[in-house]
Amino acid sequence: MVLFGDVVILIMLAVTAIMIIRTTNLFVAVMLSGIYSLLSAGLLTVMDAVDVAFTEASVGAGISTVLMLGTLALVGHEEKKPRRRPLIPLVVVTLTGAVLVYGTLDMPPFGSPDNPIHHHVADYYLEESYEDMGGIPNVVTSVLASYRGYDTMGETTVIFTAVVGVLLLLARGPRSPRTTRSGGSVKREGPADA
Amino acid sequence: MHDRVILRIGTKMLIPFILVFALYVQFHGDYGPGGGFQAGVIFAAAFVLYALVFGLESATKALPHKVVYVLAALGVMIYAGTGYVTMALGGDFLDYNVLANDPHHGQHYGILAVELGVVTTVFGVMVAVFYAFAGRGRAER
């Protein structure tokens, strides 16, 4: 039954992906990518990765879709026709894909429980986390916030850096013509008042 | 947007529940799925919904740009600060065992503190990015 669910969701994922490629209406593409995220969240739930599914549903299907719609409001709804046939990009993509597939041939079998990645520190985390953390049942939280707290601090910093980049690119945009026109005394304007 | 009664009333009814659910996800992260990242996004989603229905001006009146930027930075400071506190108490960086007499309680406090940092940053960042996109479209019209 679980396998049946996997197969159905995977087929729907593939269909959604093909529809995203085929459509030239960007609004439809954004909506379909939201659906794609929601289907991925469903697939992750079926595979018992509820924490990841939760993130995918809220970030991928929720906030990302809103931000993409915000972008569409700026750039318009219709995809422009490509000016020439994309032959060279096709060759490059095919070659890169072939090299990547070749690179996976040496890797341990996909999804096998004997893979080294599942026995480096994962065994310790799974067996001892309840005892170490004084009864926190969610191992994902223990790993994320305590065992690997240093990594999560890096992730938090990355998110913060991302917003700094977005603000540098976007938030000052509409203001800049006025600042340059104001004679010699160009006032420094932070993104806070944009 | 004044004529869309169902949309306005529905949004007003939904937002408190979205906020409470975000808090539930935040503080229940130790026991069920969820944690700082998800809670921050859901908390931000409530404000995004408010801004979509009632307009960006109303949203920035309730939650000004400056507050959002401060929150985004504050979260990282809370997280790193927890690390410095544990160092000051004689442990390693982000070694929560020293936060309380019982190392198990220390782990609980430590995880609570860093999750608070994560939720603050993620909330601030998501709302700030949304403000940036929505505000730009408005200003150029």
Write the layout of secondary structure elements.
The complex is a heterodimer of chains A (194) and B (141).
Chain A: H1 2-22, H2 26-46, H3 50-75, H4 87-104, H5 122-132, H6 139-147, H7 149-171, H8 176-181
Helix pairs in contact in A: 1-2, 2-3, 5-6, 6-7
Chain B: H1 5-27, H2 36-54, H3 56-62, H4 65-88, H5 103-139
Helix pairs in contact in B: 1-2, 2-3, 2-5, 4-5
Description:
The complex is a heterodimer of chains A (194) and B (141). With 194 residues, chain A is mostly helical. Chain A has a domain at 1-81: Four Helix Bundle (Hemerythrin (Met), subunit A) (Up-down Bundle). Chain A is 70% helix and 0% strand. The longest helix of chain A is centred in the N-terminal third of the chain and has 26 residues, at 50-75. Chain B is mainly α. In chain B, helix 2 packs across helix 3 (56-62) and helix 4 runs antiparallel to helix 5. The model of chain B has no long low-confidence stretch (mean pLDDT 89). At the A-B interface, helix 3, helix 6 and helix 7 of A face helix 2, helix 4 and helix 5 of B.
